[in-house]
Design goal:
Elements lengths: L1 E5 L6 E6 L4 E5 L3 E4 L4 E5 L8 H9 L6 E5 L5 E5 L7 E14 L3 E4 L3 E7 L1 H7 L4 E14 L4 E13 L3 E4 L4 E6 L4 H6 L4 E14 L3 H8 L7
Antiparallel strand pairs: 1-2, 2-7, 3-6, 3-9, 4-7, 5-6, 8-11, 8-13, 9-11, 10-11, 12-15, 13-15, 14-15
């Protein structure tokens, strides 16, 4: 599987070149175009193995109920993918590793990647963000997307990131939701609200724009039907 991410960072598109009989799993609605001899199968979890609860968990995590599985013919083929929001993409190769991904940032992965749903309890609930994180683990390639540009931050000790700007992070990092200012009042008056305080050593991938903030600013300008 070869991944070529084009038109970065504002309007990224992933061109995925599949070898003979190779498979790709992608978020529902992400496909732009594909070779005419690629077979597509839609399930709620794995190819040839759905599950209503898996689909419901995906919906709660901010993803689509269905995911699509693409299988190339003996001649191989290609699939073009894009996300719903304008922004960036990156590809990561996991070697029996895990990557924690914020809801809505998962785009695609190889067949060796398991997609699990991590409940983060009340700390995620109070952040106003997703109730779930996606835990991608196994061996293979993954594609994640963002709203705006993706950039890595190397953490060695402690680091603070606004909850709406987190795309993904390594599981070696622990985090807690807290205020950024000296008091809750100053945090909210400053426009920041909740943040994640990461501790440990690892990488956090951030997005330059916050989709929730954009929605809040755009909403009052939209005329009701």
């Amino acid at each position: 599987m070869e991944i070529d991410i084009q038109m970065r960072p504002g309007s990224s598109v992933a061109k995925v070149q599949l070898g003979p009989n190779e498979q790709l799993t992608a978020e529902g609605g992400a496909m732009i175009a594909m070779s005419n001899d690629i077979e597509m199968q839609t399930t709620t979890y794995k190819k040839n193995g759905g599950g209503i609860m898996k689909g419901l968990k995906r919906m709660l995590s901010g993803e689509n109920f269905f995911i699509n599985h693409y299988t190339a013919s003996g001649n191989g083929g290609e699939v073009y993918l894009a996300s719903a929001l304008h922004g960036d993409m990156i590809s990561r190769t996991l070697e029996n590793e895990s990557l924690i991904v914020q809801a809505g940032s998962y785009l695609a992965s190889g067949p060796g990647i398991e997609i699990d749903f991590n409940w983060q309890g009340m700390k995620s609930l109070f952040s106003g963000e997703s109730l779930f994180w996606l835990n991608l683990n196994g061996t293979g390639k993954v594609i994640i997307n963002s709203y705006g540009m993706i950039y890595p931050i190397e953490v060695d000790g402690e680091y603070i990131v606004d909850t709406g700007h987190i795309v993904a992070f390594e599981p070696s990092l622990k985090f807690n939701i807290s205020k950024v200012g000296e008091s809750w009042l100053s945090s909210f008056l400053g426009g920041e609200g909740f943040v994640c305080r990461f501790k440990g050593k690892g990488t956090v991938w951030c997005q330059s724009h916050n989709p929730n903030s954009f929605g809040s600013s755009l909403g009052p300008s939209l005329k009701p039907r």
